[in-house]
Amino acid sequence: MLGCCEIYLTSVINPLISLWPKTLFSRIRKAYLFDETWVIERPQLKEVMNEEKMVPDRYIIFPDSADSDLIVGILNRETGVGLFNERIVSAEKIPFAEIVRLPSCRDADDSHLLFLKDKERSALHTAKTKLLEARKYNDAIRQVYDGAIQEREVKPFSEAILTELLPKSMKKNKKTATDAAYFGTNGGDGPTFIGRFPIPVERYFIIKSENSTFPSQLLSRLVDRATEQGYDLLLYHCPFYPDEWDGVILSEIKTAVVESRSPHEIEPLHPHDKVISCVGLFQNRYHLFNYAMELREWEAKYKQYMRQAVMALREYGKYKRLQMFGYSHLPQLSHLLHLIDEK
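Below the sequence we write its predicted structure tokens.
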């Protein structure tokens, strides 16, 4: 672990849609842009940061959406200066920042590079296809669990949590500011999730569940309530279901409400953290029993396609790294990192 905050801007399953935390990026005053082939390997970045005695808390890193060990951007949050792959940052997204385009060290007609790029795109397409197949079976599983939910028990339970988090007396007379990012990614080592948030958090509300039905409903109601009451929000979208949330940060009360369920299990860290366990609650067990055989079959199919997606993502990472061999004239990473420390 680098110890830096991490932000994922895209997902493998929906790579063309980039989330953009406007509040954070409004602080960028200068951006050094590399071409889309440029990446930093995480172990290399960690080694240089240790050698240069760089303080991790000062930096936000942006991992590749398909391989979390490849870094496509790093921002010094104190100076507002960053290094970015042009695939994730453009002048249009940061109109008030100074843009410095660094020259490419590759020949655009390099046939070997074009071959590797083609392999990279093919592997990413295969991974996306396999993830969508896995999600099809996961959708079937979720539909069964949705049908087992006993709504009469859910509503009062949810309302008690929402009232504790956002008392109606705490309504703010302003419009909500909303930022968004992904909670993690699917990669060659399986699902990966952020270790640290980019804004201060002093309390976790951790929702433990055996399926996503109740947490999804609760987070959706929380966002509606918080927006109505004028709270600023950082919404963490699920990389597997980009239209849903895995976590919500209420920045003014420094509270994160997060779902804790495999593969992103979260444990308490702060003295006032609260664990809300709904394992085994609100469910009609007879309904689940009636679908026991189907659930086992769908679960096996889901795991099969997820394994195939992981293998494709490993291929993606391999071809992405091979492309960097052509950058023999790039400045030393230590020099590049000193650029973003400039006042």
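The radius of gyration is 22 Å.
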